[in-house]
Amino acid sequence: MATPSQIESRTKVFCILSDERAFQTKSPEMFSSVLQRAGMNGVYVPFMVSPGDLGRAVQSLRVLNIAGANVTVPYKEAVIPYLDILSEGANIIGAINTIVRDGDRLKGYNTNAIGFMDAMDEAGFDAAGKTALIFGTGGAARAVAFIFNWLRAERILVVGRSLEKARLLTEKLGGVPLPLDGLEQAEIRTDIVVNATAVSSVDESPELAALVAGLAIKECQLVIDLNYGRSQNFWQELAASLGGRFVDGLCPLAYQARRSFALWTKLQVPVREFLNAIQK
After folding, report:
1. pLDDT per residue over 218-262, tens digit each?
2. Residue 76 falls in the annotated catalytic set
3. What sign for the dihedral angle of Cα 20, 77, 112, 128?
4. CA 191 to CA 131: how far, in whole Å?
5. Confidence bin at 40 (pLDDT 50/70/90)
6. H helices of the chain, where?
7. Who has the most CB within 10 Å: 64, 72, 137, 185?
8. Catalytic: which of 26, 76, 165, 172?
């Protein structure tokens, strides 16, 4: 029988669950670098999962003794029925990005929310009493809306292609739903713009790029795009046109990864280690 020290010396496997985008994320190289720097015997791998296999993929975390997992688009909400329990924040948000395994029990957490808050802190932005404009209605948008509400933003505006989805989000997490159609015809006063959709380049959506370019936004200090890796980014161009600061998704990614890593390992690794790993 293996001794406790022998069990501890075995390689720990961490992973990320997504569709084909599992192979596009920087998470494997980031976490693998941090694991090595922390002196842990561990690896982090991407798993591409088809929608019909999501339940079996989650069950495999138990079967294969996966030490911890991340979940990203498009499964942040769909994965919840296959988990045993949610953290309080994840339950309110209705989306998770981190799974912690405790024996056979799987618990879902949302470190996207607190990671986004950390990224705003680094940018020097205080959300209290401010107006926020959020694009998107999925799991990432839910986490962002939750944090703005928690930080006592005065007004939260949520824009979605589906007004009904925007309404459902704001009914649960606070805010005012806005339709995407016709948005360019209104003057919008907001202190911060957050892109929580999967689109950031003209190639991905010429229509959204044109709409964003035509927005009449006033008083904006900061634009945060939760995506990264685009050579041409129309959210960055929006920030430049408004004279505001731009932050892409690498900073929020590093902060939420630090939170996930602590949940899995109980280790508090400086966020600079995650940022350095990404930038390499």
Report:
1. 999 999 999 999 999 999 999 999 999 999 999 999 999 999 999
2. yes
3. positive
4. 5
5. very high
6. 4-9, 27-37, 54-63, 88-93, 111-122, 139-150, 163-173, 206-213, 234-242, 250-265, 271-279
7. 137
8. 76
